[in-house]
Protein: RPA-related protein RADX isoform X2
Amino acid sequence: MSGELGQPQAGPSHAGLDFPNPDRNRAGVPGGVIRRAGSQGRRSWIQKVLEQITDSPLQWVTPSEVVPVAVLAVQRYLLEDEPRDTIPKPPLYCYDVTISDGVYQEKCYLDPSLNFLVYKNILKVGIEMKISRVSCLYNEKRLGQGILCIDNVHCGEALEAISLETPFRNSAHEEVPERPLRGGKSHYLALWNNEDPYGDIWLTNKQPEEHNFNNTKIISLSHLEMTWANRRNFPALLVRILHKSKLRYYGKPDKKMIEPYQTFLEVADSSGTVSVIMWNALCPEWYKSLRVGLVLLLQDYSVKKSYPFRMQPLPVDPQIKLISTMEICLNLRDPPTNIIIIPEKQVKPEWRLPKLNHRFITRSELDDMPENHICDVIGILVFVGRVQRSKKKENREDFWSYRWIHIADGTSEQPFIVELFSTSQPEIFENIYPMTYFVCTQLKVVRNDAQVPKLLYLTTTNESRVFITGHRGQPYTNDTKVKNFIHWIKTRTDSEEVKNTVIGGYYPYPPVPETFSKYSSSVKVESLLTAISEVRKEIEDLQYREQKRIAIQGIITVIKYIPHASATENASTSETLRNANQPSTSQAARRENQSQERDDNKRHQDDDPVSSQCFQTTYTSLSPTKKKRILQGPYAKLIPVPQPETSAQTKGNKPDMPSIFQRRESTSTSTIGKARKTISDRWESQLWREKKFGLIDHLHYSHVYPESIPRKFIFEQRKFLTEQFNSQPAKYIPPEGRPPKLDDFKSARSLGHFEVTILGLNHEIAIDVAFLPMYCPEDLRTSQIDTLLTCMNYSCVYPQDGAGNDRLPGPRALAGDIIKAAMKLDRVHIVGILDICNLGNNKVEVYLHRIYSPTNTS
Structure:
């Protein structure tokens, strides 16, 4: 028998197993059009499991043989309510996991009880996985069909390479467009957010086409505004796109909509500008083909009263009337809208369609821009941070994706600092790296001059668009400031760019205010303070790449300096020990952070992560004096981090210098030796010695992982580095050759950091966190550099020895000052601002961002 059964009648989202009729030959294996390995080939483990579940009287089986399979895809979708569900639930996202046993591929449904493995990025593409229990979920609306469900797994290590040549056992899983295994939703969502278009339903093939206007009646927007309420049929609109918003996904389990998307276009003719809403299935068909500046002919649309609470973006031309009483609705039906892109060469001057007017500003002009000012920027990327995520609402599964970037334009020593949220352009958001020419429109100014340090950065809006390639021919290329930037960029040299650009790492931005009362008024949370007993739950609730800021009360009882050299020396050993003990079964992973709780003496660090201004940005157009004062963030005249070449920075080599707090033997007389006061690299309070053995819980989260270390950017390795600091992809991407390791790339910082132990006020729970020293050089004039609080007030990295400024002490003096300052806080109740970060795969970091003592809480 050929092993080929009838094609299953799989609906748009029900492509699963096709169970054979019992009267058929028992050699028939469930699964649609079945492919069998040749008689001489290796037997498929997937096929054997399916045979076992077919013969089982139960709906689940424990495979007789558990062998490793490779994970090729993890795909997310919204599962609609089942008929038995009577109470609406919040959105429930399901996951289909594609596995390969080396003979076949199979798409399986992941039991929702294992969703947390995806939330924590433990179950991800490219790893080896052992499935210890499977079941069959039947489709009761179709005859003899079901899908293979994964009920229990053990997630292993990443594989060096996985072949994509193995075929699907069930040919229905190869259909285009791809369909989820369950539910009525016709498509997959992006894995980590809902704003990005994902999958093959999103078309890009819409092209301009010439139109014969002889029989086309056109109505102006101003005339339509006055007459739409009395019309049944509306003449065509001829408009230009001025703004395009990111996508909004509004799917819910109890709403049976196939493609519940919405996007806004701001369009204009000579009489006014109005909002156009594109709904549902039109979004996958048109969204990626429409861009700002295109001229559209819209026919068979509908008009409704505008939503009163939506703020329209400002018109590009202040002379154009802003129409806010109505909205144009485009739908696939009711009525079916007809959209035509008019080629620019057919656009006639007498139509008087508005031109695009950009609001480009330079970095030197930003200092004078008011709060909430909308602007466009152009520059070269000098820092690209890792992708991070933040919850849209507490207790929900929806997240924003964002990253921090720095843009230089040559008009200032300071770069633009931009909080770049996903703009529904994943092809750009996931492929930006330093040394790229970068344009971003519709950015909003965020500033607070009353805060110390002053706050100043840009953030994206709903209408922001990003451009990194194809600048030639864009409307903004004729802008004067764009031309000035292009002229400036020609003076730069590749060697300078390679030397001074940085990618990835922990980025603690924005900084918090100088007093706790200002901090209290600046945050929007239900509970301002988190009890130290609740910190573990806060950490365990974090999902992959989620970063959250909390405030706790406690007492600093231990502080230990970890120099850069020691961190590098012990990095690989530390990682090996941790990875060897990581829980990876679905049961053990629930206890996820236990592998981090080790003895303090075994937790040497790799390196310290970046502060909010983590790197040098020297430009060839600047003078040598100015190069020493390149800003590392939004504040004036901050000191850069020098990057001296030392043997201690070479992986595997021991440092030439001893540990910077190693006790040195006196070469003078014994009297002088006794008089000399040595400094220890670790301070422990008497309170800690009294309480540490009676704790009910001690959380260890001071480890700094390689992903949190900013790396010097190497253009030739841009693909590898970009992948490391992007989110985990939904589908496996084979590496090109043998990829390097992240530790092989030089850190953009060469400073050490501190491990700080904070004891709860009730002396029952303690937490170890990492602390990065920061300060502002103005403090030298006020002699306040010897306080721990001052070091945390600012967002400038403390310079290395030999930074080019003789007034500044090196890290040896810094560490001593901070440890002495910590001793002064002995038994003092402080408020600590903590940044907690989930890096995925059971890796969590907690950073002490700021402390407030009784002197600065008001």
Summary: The longest strand covers residues 547-562. Residues 564-580 form the longest helix (17 residues).
